[in-house]
């Protein structure tokens, strides 16, 4: 394979959970009197961003405190929804099983939600124990910290890593880390113009479905323009 490590985001790349989680964020915010953050606003601005960073941004903009129990309430509701409704993205398991490359997950989700999503959809065996949450670093996506942490922990230089990301924050993080980035638009939350947005942020290729991933990995290896300057590990 052309790369030494495939780094996958989880929500919106491996599992079709982004709309589900963002809907619960929007509902919980509305119940607390934050009416300016409907589902579309959450999807546009905070998909791929850690909940901690989302809360900080909303509190700064509104001048109000969301409440210390917000995260716990959302987590409880999301976990229940994941157990009942979550599905893997079509063909993800088959392609992951066939790709002869080391794999890991690097997600903005907190560990309990991440582990539950992978377990419910049967994807845990393709990654465990290499499942990383943004709680491991000071700055989550769009900062490159999580991806650089993953590369260092797995002993792979950034230029030998390829990231699959569905969010603007994730694509920006991958580019900043000096990695090749495939923008993924197969999730239900990806609206018209999403691919163009990811390309504008620097994504080197776009995949609409998992069956396109193997060909894109090979194509990126042969495209010199796909490489960015590699930061020091």
From TrEMBL:
InterPro entries annotated for this entry? Beta-PGM-like (IPR051600), HAD-like_sf (IPR036412), HAD-SF_hydro_IA (IPR006439), HAD_sf (IPR023214), PGP-like_dom2 (IPR023198)
Report the Pfam families cross-referenced here: Hydrolase (PF00702)
Question: What is an example of a GO molecular function annotated in this UniProt entry?
Answer: hydrolase activity
Required co-factor(s) are: Mg(2+)
Q: Which UniProt keywords apply?
A: Hydrolase, Magnesium, Metal-binding
Q: Which domain of life is it from?
A: Bacteria
Question: What family is this?
Answer: Belongs to the HAD-like hydrolase superfamily. CbbY/CbbZ/Gph/YieH family.
Mind telling me what this protein is named? HAD superfamily hydrolase (TIGR01509 family)
